[in-house]
Each structure stands twice: as C-alpha cells, then as structure tokens.
Amino acid sequence: MNKIAQKKIRQRLEKERESLISEISRLEKDCLYKSQREASGDLSGYSFHMADTGTDNFTRDFNLELATIEQKILYEVERALERLDEGKFGICQQCKKKINHQRLDAIPYARMCINCEEKKTSHKDQNA
C-alpha cells in the first residue's frame, strides 16, 4: 500500500475512532449518569407510570447494548491503526493474502478477507 493510501486510511480510521469515542461517551452519560427522571426529561415531582418505567428501562438497555457494540468496533479500529503502524494493514490474518480494496472501503478495520470471514461465519452458524 502506498503512502498516500495509508494516509487516507489512517485519517478515516482516526475520524471513525473519534466519532465512536464521542458516541460511546454520550450513550454512557445518558444511560449511567442520569437519573430516570432526568433521562426522560420529566423533572416534576410526580411518580412514573409502570409502562413509562418499562419503556425507559428498555431504552436504557438498548442504549447500553449499542454502546457495547460500538466499543467492540472501537477496539477493531484501534487494532487496524496498530496494523497500519506495523505494516500489516490490509493483509488477511487468516490466509495472509491481501484484503480486497472494496472490502476495506466498506469496513476499513476488517481483519480478514471476505472468503475467510465467510468461512468463519458459516463455521459459527454450524456450531450454534
């Protein structure tokens, strides 16, 4: 991979990392540090209806799950930046062949080529 392509990939990964950090931080603040009343925007002294509480709990759980998924993606982005520094970026970690440019355009933090990823996914599906 030439230096111009590496620079573009690095910029894209760093931008993605900053975006993920910001979104994870926002989700954590909304879910973990606000009371139920603050999160709902209701600052009155009235108690919540059970249905409202259930909806709020669902929303909080959903946002926590979203934050977990985004933390996993952040981990992959940071590993991709490490591979870029080590000169291993764009090489499939399974078969050691180059990862297709279209795949890297779609998922710049991809660790495996599409063939190896499909094999891994189908193997997981068979064991599930």
From TrEMBL:
Gene3D superfamilies according to UniProt: DksA, coiled-coil domain
Q: Which SUPFAM superfamilies does the UniProt entry name for this protein?
A: DnaK suppressor protein DksA, alpha-hairpin domain, Glucocorticoid receptor-like (DNA-binding domain)
Which InterPro entries does its entry note? DnaK_N (IPR037187), Znf_DskA_TraR (IPR000962)
Report dksA C4-type zinc finger ranges: 92-116
Q: Which domain of life is it from?
A: Bacteria
Provide the GO MF annotations for this entry: zinc ion binding
Domain Zinc finger DksA/TraR C4-type: start-end pairs: 87-120
Keyword list (alphabetical) reads:
Metal-binding, Zinc, Zinc-finger
Q: What is this protein called?
A: TraR/DksA family transcriptional regulator
Instruction: Name the source organism.
Output: candidate division NPL-UPA2 bacterium Unc8
